[in-house]
């Protein structure tokens, strides 16, 4: 039962730089739609879980925002790249396991292979969203450039070569997030009832 996956009505795959506010934006979408309609899936969750298991580390601290995670970030990125090279859909499959809501929000796609997996597995449902902020805004949120992290594929893999369905600008002087998110929320509400009411979407 735990591994059963529903066929969702809509999948919103988000990407963005560190401190762009993508977690805030995706959590806001879930708040607007409700947890019965929308779930937030983080590809980094199963990655950190496997990394912690293999290296004997504290998973709770790896999942948190503190310095513990930062001291392992570069090595964790390299380790994740190795696993993805062996199996590009490895972490995607783990992340969606058990998801049952009609709207899935993937908060942290970092590579083209992440997007390609969802496009292949759920071609009709998947939409891509980019959250962007200026470097000044990101610095105000605590970001500073870190070699081996900010110049790695995990931060730069989706900087080019993707035509996103939506680009959300998360700066102080940008349009309000509610206004920018309105078409996304409208699409989600359209997708949710058809998925909920159609038993054929269960697999």
TrEMBL record:
A single cellular component GO annotation: cytosol
Stored SUPFAM superfamilies: P-loop containing nucleoside triphosphate hydrolases
GO molecular function per UniProt: ATP binding; phosphomevalonate kinase activity
Major subcellular location class: cytoplasm
InterPro entries per record: P-loop_NTPase (IPR027417), Pmev_kin_anim (IPR005919)
Biological processes per GO annotation: cholesterol biosynthetic process; isopentenyl diphosphate biosynthetic process, mevalonate pathway
Biological pathway: Isoprenoid biosynthesis; isopentenyl diphosphate biosynthesis via mevalonate pathway; isopentenyl diphosphate from (R)-mevalonate: step 2/3
Gene designation: pmvk
Localization: Cytoplasm, Cytosol
EC top class named in words: transferase
Protein name: Phosphomevalonate kinase
A Pfam family it matches: P-mevalo_kinase
Organism: Parambassis ranga (Indian glassy fish)
Highest classification ranks of the organism: Eukaryota, Metazoa, Chordata, Craniata, Vertebrata
Keyword presence, Nucleotidyltransferase: no
